[in-house]
Amino acid sequence: MGYFLRRTGFFVATLWAAVTLNFLIPRLQPGDPAEAIVSRLTGKSEAVDPRQVEAIRRLLGTPDGSLLTQYWDYLGELVHGNFGLSYTYFPYTVTEVIGDAALWTVVLVGVTQILSFVIGTLLGAWAAYRRNSRVDSVITLGSTFVGTLPFFWIALLLIYVFAITLQWFPDGGGYGGGSTPGWSWLFFSDAFQHSVLPALSLLITGPIGWIIGMRNNMVQELGQDYARLARAKGLPQRRIALTYGARIAILPNVTGFAIALGSILGGTVLVETIFNYPGLGRLLLESVSNKDFPLMQALFLFTTIGVLVANFVADLLYGVLDPRVRRTEAA
Amino acid sequence: MTPRRFRAALVAVATTASLTLAGCTGTESTSAAPTEDGLIPVLNYGDFGGGEMPKENYNPFLLATKLSATEYLYERLMIVETYSCQEIPWLATGYDWTDDKTLVFDIRDGVKWNDGEDFTNEDVAYTFNLIKENDVLDTAGVWQYLDAVEATGDSQVTFTFKEPGGSAFQMINGVPIVPEHVWSQVDDPTTFTNAKDPVGTGPMTIKSFNPRELTIERNPDYWQADDLKVKEIKFHKVDSGGQVEQLKLSRGEYDTQGMYVPDIEKTYVERDPEHNHYWYAPGGVISVYMNLTEKPFDDVEFRRALTTAFNYDEVVEKAQLGYVEQASQTGLVIPGQEDWLPEGLENEGKMPYDAEAADQALTDAGYKTDADGNRLDKDGNPISFSFKVPGEYLDWVAASDILIENLQDLGFEVDQETPQPATHDEDRKTGNYDMIFGVYGGTCDMYRNFADPLDSSRTAPVGKPALSNETRWQDPETDALLADLKVATDESEQQEAVAGLAEIMMDEVPNIPIWYGAKWFQYSTKNAVGWPNEDDPYAGSNDFLPMLMHLRPAEDSGDEG
Lengths: 331, 561
Hints:
The complex is a heterodimer.
Chain A: H1 2-28, H2 33-42, H3 50-60, H4 67-79, H5 94-129, H6 134-148, H7 151-165, H8 185-205, H9 207-222, H10 225-233, H11 237-262, H12 269-275, H13 280-289, H14 293-321, H15 323-330
Helix pairs in contact in A: 1-14, 2-3, 5-6, 5-8, 5-9, 5-11, 5-14, 6-9, 7-8, 7-12, 9-11, 11-14, 12-13, 13-14, 14-15
Chain B: H1 3-22, E1 43-45, E2 78-80, E3 87-89, E4 92-99, E5 102-107, H2 121-133, E6 146-152, E7 156-161, H3 169-172, H4 180-183, E8 204-210, E9 213-218, E10 232-236, H5 243-250, E11 256-257, H6 264-267, E12 276-278, E13 281-290, H7 300-306, H8 312-319, H9 355-364, E14 384-388, H10 394-409, E15 413-417, H11 421-430, E16 435-440, H12 446-454, H13 476-487, H14 491-508, E17 511-519, E18 522-524, E19 528-529, H15 544-550, E20 552-553
Parallel strand pairs in B: 1-10, 14-15, 14-16
Antiparallel strand pairs in B: 2-3, 4-5, 5-7, 6-7, 8-9, 9-10, 11-18, 12-18, 13-16, 13-17, 19-20
Helix pairs in contact in B: 1-5, 7-9, 8-10, 12-13, 13-14
Family (chain A): Belongs to the binding-protein-dependent transport system permease family.
Membrane topology (chain A): Multi-pass membrane protein
Protein name (chain A): ABC transporter permease
């Protein structure tokens, strides 16, 4: 039980640190959101109107009170789930803005992450099972090669071939201009069409880490004494590989997977920017370039909480899956 | 990689893709026939604002986040078009200064809100008092000048000012008029999104919204309905990056767009020379700012010498691809503001590039060169300074390269620094620079055009952010002229003050205008004609309402737009 208590304590402490940093970092950033907004609206070819900057500054409001009272207020608002009004989407609240974007990211990235994990782990296990065979070389070399290609290059290539030249799929966006977002079959099929290319780009690069990790772990496990003993006892190869080797080799990947799921929120900036996908990653980028502090703060907070919770769950899971961990920590 | 750099990389890769593509896709030239009642069925416009994932917001006072369709919902008393600043009577039929502190507008009869209620002078008075009570909605700051706004008589509104109010005329006409019967029911107008059936007097109403596409449709009861020939306008979300958008533009998917396109002739006009056109009217004055608190920039002789030191033509042709014009040293935007030029001015105040004259003038002013050609200050030390330019503004960087070369030819040691735009703006505000580009002017508010860069009350000591006078120009004569201009209601008084300020720009050189920033505007005459352009500049490209009222179905009048 001590293991789980310690993990919980660690979780709470990191959470507090993350929340506090999240409060401090935007306040240390240089620049004035009102100025940024007006410059962006005006463009660089026309004169910025200082009166507009002033009006927007007053509209958005500046935090008052000492840093300590601000911090206290911030914690209070946080507990109530109140993140304030977004600067970019004023007067919509941060919660509304994030709520609209979250589903897109969670579905797109969630599904592709799970698929990547499954595909990657299976391929990796297969390569290890048939190690040094042709299958192994194709999988290992192939994934290493694809892994060296920049992600955005693959994504742009997909857009160029499938969206622009062949025109099979739309070039970007989460849905078309004509369809109304809602729970209709028409909208779903439209959204699915739009998700194919981004999902494909994620699925090309996604499994690589899992493949290589799984293969290497498993090759190592299959070289262990117990595997040799099992072989000597005459257990079938397949059983040694799947029931013994794979079960142990998958452990580090489980942690990795939990973290990958947790970082869904922050890890999609690239794919969403390229495909103009209406998700959290693009929102994050936009909030940073607009100095939209309330939105930025909430997104960073969700990302850190996501990673922390995922880590926590992985830790707990690890304790259950691998009794050795519990015992070592207790000792 | 920073997000911007990353985008730049994307752009680079995608340009190759789109250029290859531009060669192999045909242009659609099917034109939508007008409807039976002679209307243009639909026009496709560019972006509608509201960020990357727009939400419905038609509150005309929330200037940073409202969707651009709001401009078609609410109207102003007079429209002062942005190209040559002509006043077009709109919700008001006219105005009169009864004395220099009292301005009376005559409100138009027969205008209705789109919910069927009558529009009255009470609505106008209500609107102004609304932004008085909610001062964050007063984005132009009209209430710094106003004392009271009242509905008077049957159809008049009387504005009284605290002091002579000539310079506030522009601002008053910038305020969108909203219906009292709707807005008086709103709890908090500062956080009102006005998303549901917005009530305005404008020519269009909201038809449908989705974050990627916003459609507005003709208001059949509009007060100028006879001249309103557009049935529907579809705005399309323009995603960042722009390469795909360029492709859409060259494919003819937009009837009008306002975006930067490299080599517009090739990527757009040549695709359909009969219909595709562009008009890049001048915007603000892009000017070399010198830090006037530093030597040698505090010396008027020195600054005057530099006005002939720059190769303006090369900046215009090479850095700006010939899309813009050289700026007049007066700070006025020519040709739109040519009526304001002081009399007897040579070449509209556009300075010639004459390095020899600059060299001579510098030497005469006491800035000699040594044997190696280095330019020395009056104490005999080499003059060296930096030129800051945001690294992301590629055309600005190219322009600064040329200017720096010109300066180096005169023997100055000049370093180029390329900070991030936010840092650049901050440095310019706080005076942390030697030489830098600044932008001002080009609006119809002549007082603002000159007060922003030159008013001594709009500056601050180096280290503190200046409101807008970033060169830190302090001159009693300038301030006196600005004070005259601020209160002038009479045209000849305004002329006189502006001419005086333009002369100060010529003689004392508070900054050196180089070129006019361009307002990007592309249009197609496939479906509609009557767009404003160089031959018929009845309004600026961002004067949406006058433009809409000029549009006619393409079949009516041939292809010249």
